[in-house]
Amino acid sequence: PPKSDESNYGHAFNLFLNSEKIPKENIHRIMGEANAKEEAERYSKLIQNNLKSENNFPQFDFIMLGLGEDGHTASIFPNQMELLKSAKIFYVAEHPISGQKRITLTGPLINNAKNISFFVTGKSKAKVIENIFEKKNNYNSYPASHINAINGNLTWFLDKEVSNKL
Predict the structure, then answer these.
(1) For 49-92, how does the pLDDT look when each residue is reduced to its tens digit (9 = 90+)?
(2) 3-state SS of 71-136?
(3) Global pTM?
(4) HSE on the CB side for 138, CA within 13 Å?
(5) Domains and CATH numbers, the chain
(6) Alpha-carbon distances, residue 68 vs 22, 51, 81, 112 (angstroms)
(7) Nearest-5° angle of CA 154, CA 156, CA 158?
(8) Which phi and psi angles does 119 have, rounded to 5°?
(9) Are 93 and 80 in contact (CB under 8 A)?
């Protein structure tokens, strides 16, 4: 639910989506409180019906991602690497520790975007970033290492604590 501390939509709304400059009809949130499978299907149809396709996938102008300490991104966790190649647009992922169901974009949808940006903060993610950027220590076991804008730009924004070892 949007009021939950774990709601990505809730955080985005509080930070910037509540701006008067963004028309409410342009905001299409994933209903995390709904049945996960049904919501993933509903949202997939919504996106397919409203975005132009490129390479048989809808194409976003911009996707903003974060990075977890385990190298996950967009709720694609290291134990769910198959989501990086899924033919689906949105899929139900499961948090490996809590078992929480999450609706995630799949790898092909993310990689099809015109612009992808990672925003990574915190010292606890420095080793993951070092491994991904220097392609060492099984870096490809991190889902984030498989994000590559095939039709556009990939940009990483790192704070000093994260980029310290680069």
Answers:
(1) 999 999 999 999 999 999 999 999 999 999 999 999 999 999 99
(2) CCECCECHHHHHHHCCCCCEEEEECCCCCCEEEEECHHHHHCCCEEEEEECCHHHHHHHHHHHHCC
(3) 0.93
(4) 5
(5) 55-163 (3.40.50.1360)
(6) 28, 28, 15, 22
(7) 175
(8) -120, 110
(9) yes
